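User: I'm curious whether this sequence folds into something compact or stays loose and floppy. Could you predict its structure so I can see for myself?
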Amino acid sequence: MGRKTIRDIWKLTRDGQPIVALTAYDYFTAKYVDEAGVDIILVGDSLEMVIYGSDTTHTATMEKMLYHTEAVARAVKNAMVVADMPFLSYHTGIGDAVKNAGRFIQAGAQAVKLEGGWKFAAVVKAIVDSGIPVMGHIGMLPQSIHRIGGYFTQGADEETASMLYEDARALQESGAFAVVLEKVHPQTAEKITGMLEIPTIGIGSGPHCDGQILVINDILGLFDKFTPPFVKKYADLKSQIIEAARAFAEDVRNKKFPEQKERRTDERKN
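Assistant: Here's the prediction. I'll summarize afterward.
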């Protein structure tokens, strides 16, 4: 069958089936997430925080994002692969934005995601016109965290909600095939979902979006500094890793590893 396409994603929404999306940053995680049957795998610039330990996503570079995109793309057989365009990769002009988006397609992604609404409508349109699908992203924008001043819910009042409606419409009119709503007030997210023809994918935006996405490290319990309150932890791999490493260290220090086994008879003959 091959990987899902934007048509498959649209069909899920038309059929009333929620879209399931997760992030992945390496070959094996992407392989296992793909085998689990998710619809979209995002190579997110969130890797800066959950893989490299940065405080923000700003330090993600094109080279780093391309490297991880290639690893994920090699692993995925069924899900649609979307790559995050990092900070400053689409801010310096339409030509740069299209070129950088194209590099992600060459790395194996099927689409790119970028943050921002109507201010980036022309950029989205240019990338789409070049033949590259674009996923929008509005609400709480990690790349704009210094301007926003923190990880706050967006669209909780009429004025900011109206701005999000304008952003959502602009992205749809520019050709985006879907839009991520991050930390958008649930009532505002519900209204945006109802007014758009393209799917909405929520993260911390309530139950009324057409799909949901979370960071893989968060659902596996592999976090240290900060976990959003809307995250549900489905495993506690952090504790399991610590326990396994501690058990290994104990065996080595007690000389229980490697195990002492008698040499084979044929080896003794030599």
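Summary: Strands lie at 19-23, 40-43, 80-84, 111-113, 134-139, 178-182, 200-203, 211-214. Residues 110 and 146 are 30 Å apart (CA to CA).
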